[in-house]
Write a sequence for this structure.
């Protein structure tokens, strides 16, 4: 499989994502922000970082990058787009996902282990998980508090588009231990068609037991397995 | 060559002019004699900057020669932007620590942020990708609101820069003490990794080669930063806020990626970052290292604001700038790399064979100085040296004769709740400590551990320093800093490799301070020699005084260790019920300089802990051997708070209690005998745990290494029990430990 990894100036999880993708022998293709070419990749990852410095709202400048036109087009045609951390922020700014990511409730940056409960496996991103699985995947962000209006939140739940919620390690409600105070403890959501995922936690940092958790690998494997089964790439590449 | 703006030679400039460039009248006269004319305005600024303590080490240079800087693995010792040491597999680790104390005392966020930015540049200038940052911080008492404000600003600044640029902050240390109330310390360390063949030096070559200035435009920020760092702070220091630079981590991220793309490229002859004293020092040092001369035209330098003089352009400390010497003809190709990252570059000059620094402003020559004079002929100061008069009285104090104010269990909880001991999580969770995907052991342990991808290797990293011992005996204090840093690395199983140091001291023109500095360098040298860890880079921060009061002598050690197999490490946390707990190293009752003494008696007096460097080396070798043989389930070094705190920390981290016996703590003796055994900070010790089947082998190993080995008890339960004198619940211990840095500010003495 070929994972395209977007590189904006200020992106820093690009190399981590490439490393994670390589662990299972998949190919990482770096996609430069000034280019429009996606090089026929099967899935586009928008990685973490501070794109263009994020001196404005996070992701607000990146959405205008030439690359993002191609990514939006790719997404419209059903291609898998996976926004992680800053990538999630960019997807919200680009209106490929609803809602917004505000300053953490603590008003501070948080880098810490987090536990995510998988709420649906009817998604190419979680196909290798089971509903209720608790994945240990770290967060590292200053602006990850997911917000949207009530109607949007209800719709997300109704359509089973909340893939991940912050929980306690035992799967119980996270309560005050939430890393950012997201509404309804939302950690990751997909778009209406289910092919665009945004999540604040960093699965690429949880792919090897040596680093404390390999749970993130299950998401990369889900994507790979879905692609193999569906051959979506042929349709949109 | 006629230099414009030169004054008449006989005339001594205004005292204000000399003060601005931090030169004495004698130093000015020396410059005039050397030049056989009066220096121009620009020349005076350049001389002042390069002869400052910060750039020229005019006080510390004669002492620093004592430090051991050679070793079999050393690829680059002091004198470059950072040190470099071989770690095998064709790789080198590149690292350095540097202070940003004065800027942080005035403007904590930007002072700390630009400290991080500067140390990152030192490492990627050499072509190495930065893989880790560490920070050693000192503030006044934690219960004072102003100190919290400073601490919060510094932590935010470190995170703001490091998180944005995407280099993990994996460790460091923080202490609160009266001594730093008016002069906080912010030391930042950066560690990078590179293939030997790509190591880039900052040594110019090839007369005629163009000089490229890349990155940020040049503004008026930070003018005289180097000289500002070389004088004492006083009430007017707040007005010097313009001398503090403002950081742009996004720009530096782009600069870093572009420079790393060019690392090892033969078209790039040399790279030098712009730090203290900006273009003045970077051009001079770059050319002088290569035995060349250099000529720059300030008119070619892109400016952030109009009307800047040549003087301001040369001395600006605008951040995120880099100087490159490029092969003639390769300018366009090299500039294309920077263009791709949307970075501005100017050709500002060329390398010459004159051994002079010539600065033009268009057609006018405004500076023409011999490089030898600027760098090799820095007028050294040899201040008087004298031990502080109060020291003998301090040393005569007998801490064991004091009556303990608390039972041992309560003392343990108070120590765990001390801001100098308790959990650092409220700080390190604000730093991205994982980006890069290499962090095996995150902050909160004895040392951080980072694996190196595509190898089996890992790097262990730590910073250490304890000024309380230094007050009593600066020589021993510095040696202990080295020993403890090495112990932190050995606790994981890593072999200490090399050292970077930051010497934070007061005004060396005071004989007592200079004596402390001399003693500390001696102690540091002795310990580095004994433990086989050469000093490959470092920084000196003097004049840490405010309104005449000096900080306690604070040598900070940054140390890098190497682990052959990243998987073969242990942590500090107790691992399994039923395991045995043992102490490796001596049992003694030494309370002088301890955290217990500060909390219980609010003094720092008495004999400082003993340090037998031979025993230290053997104890550490034993622990490393035991880790390598897979015999240990945990290892934790005994530091502040002594044996009892080390045991409690291992218990808290592992979520497991322990039941131990320590007869010496209950034996009859002077009033504080028990406290001394439990909380004294005797050196060369580890608390370890292991399963029963390893016991025999461990005891044998200890005997082979001639190291005291004492079984204390077993892991289990939910209480920490030591004989009849300590019995606290794990939950209480954890609460005290976790809340140490989050409790409310209680003191009302705000501004100072």
């Amino acid at each position: 499989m070929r994972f395209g990894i977007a590189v904006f100036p200020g992106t820093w999880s690009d190399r981590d994502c490439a490393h994670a993708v390589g662990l299972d022998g998949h190919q990482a293709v770096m996609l430069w922000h000034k280019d429009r070419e996606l090089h026929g990749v099967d899935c586009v990852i928008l990685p973490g970082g501070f794109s263009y410095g994020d001196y404005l709202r996070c992701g607000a400048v990146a959405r205008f990058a030439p690359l993002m036109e191609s990514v939006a087009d790719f997404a419209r045609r059903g291609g898998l787009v996976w926004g992680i951390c800053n990538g999630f922020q960019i997807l919200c700014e680009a209106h490929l996902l609803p809602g917004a990511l505000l300053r953490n409730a603590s008003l501070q940056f948080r880098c810490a282990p987090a536990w995510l409960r998988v709420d649906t496996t009817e998604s190419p991103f979680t196909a290798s998980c089971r509903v209720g699985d608790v994945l240990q995947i770290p967060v590292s962000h200053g602006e990850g508090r997911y917000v949207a209006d009530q109607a949007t939140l209800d719709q997300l739940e109704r359509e089973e588009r909340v893939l991940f919620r912050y929980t306690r390690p035992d799967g119980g409600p996270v309560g005050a231990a939430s890393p950012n105070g997201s509404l309804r403890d939302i950690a990751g959501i997909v778009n209406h068609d289910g092919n665009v995922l945004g999540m604040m936690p960093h699965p690429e940092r949880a792919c090897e037991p040596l680093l404390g958790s390999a749970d993130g690998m299950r998401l990369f494997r889900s994507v790979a397995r879905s692609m193999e089964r569906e051959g979506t790439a042929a349709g949109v590449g | 060559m006629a230099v414009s703006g030169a004054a008449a030679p006989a005339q001594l400039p205004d005292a204000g002019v000399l003060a601005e460039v931090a030169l004495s009248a004698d130093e000015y006269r020396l410059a005039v004699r050397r030049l056989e004319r009066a220096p121009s305005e620009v020349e005076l600024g350049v001389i002042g900057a390069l002869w400052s303590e910060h750039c020229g080490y005019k006080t510390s240079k004669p002492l620093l020669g004592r430090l051991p800087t050679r070793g079999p693995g050393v690829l680059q010792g002091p004198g470059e932007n950072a040190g470099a040491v071989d770690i095998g597999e064709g790789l080198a680790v590149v690292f350095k620590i540097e202070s940003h104390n004065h800027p942080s005392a005035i403007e904590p966020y930007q002072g700390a942020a630009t400290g991080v930015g500067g140390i990152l540049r030192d490492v990627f200038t050499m072509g190495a990708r930065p893989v880790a940052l560490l920070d050693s911080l000192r503030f006044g008492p934690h219960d004072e609101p102003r100190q919290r404000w400073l601490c919060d600003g510094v932590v935010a600044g470190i995170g703001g820069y490091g998180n944005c640029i995407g280099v993990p902050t994996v460790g460091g240390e923080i202490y609160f003490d009266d001594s730093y109330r008016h002069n906080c310390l912010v030391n930042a360390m950066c560690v990078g990794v590179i293939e030997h063949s790509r190591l880039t030096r900052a040594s110019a070559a090839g007369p005629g080669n163009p000089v490229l200035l890349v990155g940020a435009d040049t503004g008026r920020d930070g003018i005289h930063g180097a000289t500002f760092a070389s004088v004492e702070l006083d009430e007017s220091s707040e007005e010097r806020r313009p001398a503090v630079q403002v950081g742009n981590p996004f720009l530096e991220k782009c600069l870093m990626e572009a420079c790393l793309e060019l690392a090892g490229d033969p078209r790039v002859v040399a790279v030098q970052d712009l730090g203290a004293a900006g273009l003045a020092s970077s051009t001079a040092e770059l050319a002088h290292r290569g035995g060349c001369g250099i000529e720059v035209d300030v008119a070619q330098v892109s400016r952030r604001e109009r009307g800047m003089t040549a003087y301001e352009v040369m001395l600006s400390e605008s951040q995120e700038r880099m100087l490159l010497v490029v092969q003639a003809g390769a300018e366009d190709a090299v500039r294309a790399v920077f263009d791709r990252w949307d970075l501005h570059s100017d050709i500002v000059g060329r390398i010459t064979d004159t051994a002079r620094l010539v600065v033009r402003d268009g057609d006018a020559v405004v500076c023409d100085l011999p490089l030898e004079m600027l760098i090799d002929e820095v007028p050294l100061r040899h201040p008087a040296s004298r031990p502080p008069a109060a020291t003998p009285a301090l040393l005569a104090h007998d801490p064991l004769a004091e009556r303990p104010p608390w039972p041992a269990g309560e003392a343990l909880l108070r120590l765990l709740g001390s801001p100098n001991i308790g959990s650092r999580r409220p700080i390190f969770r604000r730093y991205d400590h994982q980006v890069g995907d290499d962090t095996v052991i995150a902050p909160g342990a004895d040392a951080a551990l980072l694996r190196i991808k595509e190898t089996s290797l890992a790097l262990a990293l730590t910073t250490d320093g304890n000024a309380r011992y230094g007050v009593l005996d600066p020589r021993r204090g510095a040696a202990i800093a080295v020993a403890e840093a090495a112990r932190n690395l050995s606790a994981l199983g890593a072999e200490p490799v090399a050292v970077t140091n930051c010497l934070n001291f007061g005004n060396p023109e005071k004989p007592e301070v200079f004596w402390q500095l001399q003693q500390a360098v001696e102690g540091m040298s002795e310990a580095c020699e004994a433990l086989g860890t050469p000093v490959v880079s470092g920084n000196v921060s003097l004049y840490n005084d405010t309104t005449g009061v000096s900080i306690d002598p604070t040598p900070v050690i940054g140390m890098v260790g190497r682990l052959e197999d990243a998987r073969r490490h242990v942590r500090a946390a107790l691992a399994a019920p039923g395991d045995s707990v043992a102490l490796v190293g001596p049992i003694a009752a030494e309370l002088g300089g301890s955290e217990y003494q500060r909390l219980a008696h609010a003094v720092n007096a008495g004999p400082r802990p003993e340090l037998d460097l031979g025993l230290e080396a053997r104890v550490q070798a034993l622990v490393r051997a035991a880790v390598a043989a897979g015999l240990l389930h945990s290892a934790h070094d005994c530091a502040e708070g002594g044996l009892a705190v080390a045991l409690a920390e291992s218990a808290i981290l592992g979520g497991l209690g322990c039941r131990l016996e320590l007869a010496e703590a209950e034996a009859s003796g002077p009033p504080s005998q028990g406290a001394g055994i439990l909380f004294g900070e005797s050196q060369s010790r580890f608390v370890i745990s292991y399963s029963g089947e390893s016991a025999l082998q461990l005891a044998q190993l200890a005997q082979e290494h001639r190291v005291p080995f004492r079984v204390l008890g077993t892991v289990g339960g939910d209480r920490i029990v030591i004989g009849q004198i300590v019995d606290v619940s794990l939950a209480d211990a954890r609460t005290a430990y976790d809340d140490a840095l989050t409790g409310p500010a209680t003191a009302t003495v705000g501004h100072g």
Observations:
- The radius of gyration of chain B is 26 Å.
